Amino acid sequence: MRTWNLNGFRAIVTGGSRGIGRAIVEELSGLGATVLSASIHPAEAPFGATEVITDLATPDGREVLLNSLTADWDSLDILVNNVGLNIRKPTIEYSLEDYEQVMRINATSMFELSRLLHPRLKRSGRASIVNIGSVAGSLSVGSSAAYAMSKAAVAHLSRYLAVEWAKDQIRVNAIAPGWVATALTEKIQQSPRAMQTIAERTPMGRIGRPEEIAAVAAFLCMPIASYLTGAVIPVDGAMSALSMDITSALREG
Q1: What would the 3-class secondary structure string for 10-65 be?
Q2: Facing residues of 232 across strands?
Q3: Distance in angstroms between the alpha carbons of the first and the last residue of the chain
Q4: pTM for this entry
Q5: Contact 139/240 with Cβ under 8 angstroms?
Q6: Which of 94, 147, 160, 227 is labelled catalytic?
Q7: What architecture (CATH level 2) is domain 2-238?
Q8: Domain positions in the chain
Q9: Handedness of CA 143, 145, 146, 149 (dihedral sign)
Q10: pLDDT tens digits, residue range 68-109?
């Protein structure tokens, strides 16, 4: 069906060289999009994107990305703001530098790239921005206060821009993943106790996979999703829907 592909679409994915970002790059390119990945780290193996190596947390790094766009990228159909960082430690151990680094990478880069690329997205007439947040933006999951603040900002920036830019035919949505098996959660995956906790607190009983986040991101970019904007979609195995399971506790005595 014509609306279930991305043939002819141009996409930029930030943090696209690994983890969730790489899975999104591969999903979009597999559906026919031409993809540019902007990341501070080069990909470890070939994948379906042109790479721009730059630090998007800085104004100079964002300028590198903009300057890399050739004339045929004057119109942009997809922007996936995925680049992110977490410094996992208690709030009282955070320095101001730690806090500002997390906010620059997770929130400021997203705000600035969306703003700077707005003219190209507007020219598309069918543009979609997908912002990668986290369930940590609405739940306390022990990821760090700064990270949680940054991901709450992601969710509300997405809602706000969806309203402000609807007139420009730019849809804006966010995805809020739960725990996902990537290099950033490697320490968690190596801890049997942590993995048991995830299984117990997630109704589906397991950690997520990057391709499961990528599939939702791709759907949000498709013409078939043309009336979907301003949403923050949890992709977390129902973790954010669970408060407590009293029924199970009663069954167990």
Answers
A1: EEEEECCCCHHHHHHHHHHHHCCCEEEEEECCCCCCCCCCEEEECCCCCHHHHHHH
A2: 174
A3: 52
A4: 0.94
A5: yes
A6: 147
A7: 3-Layer(aba) Sandwich (3.40)
A8: 2-238
A9: positive
A10: 999 999 999 999 999 999 999 999 999 999 999 999 999 999
